[in-house]
Specification:
The protein is an alpha/beta fold. The protein is 38% helix and 33% strand. Helix 1 runs parallel beside helix 2. It is globular, with a radius of gyration of 13 Å.
């Protein structure tokens, strides 16, 4: 799993590449939760390079969304491939999180004024 972070205005863009499963979750959780704990409020998770997510991987996204909400921020997702989107759908998370086709679309109006 590769994790790349870049700041775009007030938004931290975190791009994930590879598989998010039991063997890679700890690394991704450390990066994402660590960024939130360091004060990031607005997160864009670019999953265009991610081809698989397990239920334990989804837990990282749910935990991040909860922490961001508590901090007055939020997360958006972009570039989600069909196999990964199906996992979000099956877990019932597709209606609780915001998805966009591209980074550009996700960054429009984010963070809210």
């Amino acid at each position: 799993m590769e994790v790349t972070k870049a700041k775009t205005g007030k938004v931290l863009v975190v791009a994930l590449k590879g598989r998010l499963d039991a063997s890679t979750t700890a690394v991704v959780e450390k990066e994402i939760i660590g960024a939130i704990d360091a004060g990031e409020q607005w997160l864009l998770l670019d999953l265009a390079g991610m081809n698989y997510v397990s239920s334990i991987g989804l837990r990282v996204f749910v935990l991040a969304a909860k922490r961001l909400k508590t901090a007055g921020g939020s997360a958006r997702f972009c570039g989600v491939q069909e196999p990964v989107q199906r996992i979000f759908d099956m877990a019932g998370l597709s209606t609780r999180m915001e998805f966009f086709p591209t980074q550009e679309a996700a960054l429009l109006g984010f963070p809210p004024a």
